[in-house]
Design goal:
The chain is mainly beta. The chain contains 1 helix and 12 strands; from the N terminus they run βββββββββββαβ.
Length: 155
Amino acid sequence: MLGRKFPCSIGRGGIRFDKREGDGATPAGEFSLSGALYRPDRLPRTILPPCAQPIGLDWIWSDAPDDPRYNSLIRRGFGHPFSHERMRRADRQYDLVVPVGYNSRRQPGRGSAILLHVWRKPRHPTAGCVAFALPDLVWIANRIGSGGRIRITPV
């Protein structure tokens, strides 16, 4: 990005053009980036871009292909009857996230919740997201605004 390269982690299933829900792969292609979400109890607002939104206590991301709200961020998600991922995690991986516009048409089974997020540790595989060290992700989030793009290509 802007001439900089960042070490990152990708999905344990590698990078694939034929991404499927639950395959652990990172989707290949060029995708939009839509702002940033952050944990206000863990990160100071002052280091984040103006478009960053605080993650609510009950926010989830649906990952159930049979859910009418599949591959969507759902606010007020407590009691949601379909499979989902909580956006407020006990670990620090979702302290800052940037949603990737993959499967924005929400085609069931094509994959969901592809995010840029904080890595667990350097180069530790993800479930399909792209993960970075927190300082690098903060740098990226501050430069993409709400109209950035990411190109993910197999090496």
